[in-house]
Amino acid sequence: MTAIASKSQLRMSFLRYALFTVPAILLLGTVSGRISGAGYGNAWFDALEKPAIMPPGWVFGAAWAVLYILLGLVLALLLHARGAAARRPALALFVLQLLLNFAWPPLFFAYHEVGAALWTIVAMVLLSAAATVLFWRIRRAAALLMLPYLAWLGFAALITWQVGALNPDAPRLAPDAPATDIAL
Asked: Fold for domain 11-169?
């Protein structure tokens, strides 16, 4: 059969991809943050001196939820672009930067490696920017959906750098251990 798919069939194909990719990326991002104890409530993080530009904790949760949804849509658009010439390298860059994204919370919050986290986010920015350029050639909508992510990564890199500068002993900073003695 050599019939061309109708617009509604193409839309449904994209929706099938998105129904998988959006929840998958949202779930993986949430799991990465949860298992590493990301955010306020982490005793080590709470003990750090924060930069003046640090937003309240709820902003991070809301921003990352929106960004992971956008990344899921970007992935669906790329998967849907079957005949595109640069699709494979674009997907490779996307997956690589996404793996770094999921590695950042454990590096920072669980292992307290602020320097490694900074280099990781710089690599994420570079890979995401390169991927966005490729996406523009494949699906312009995918490239445009990457712009808020790139902006947030730049902001997060700045915060990471400032946390490192304000807390040079961050890797060795240990929060006070909870008391195990019972006071009588």
From this structure: Ferritin (1.20.1260)
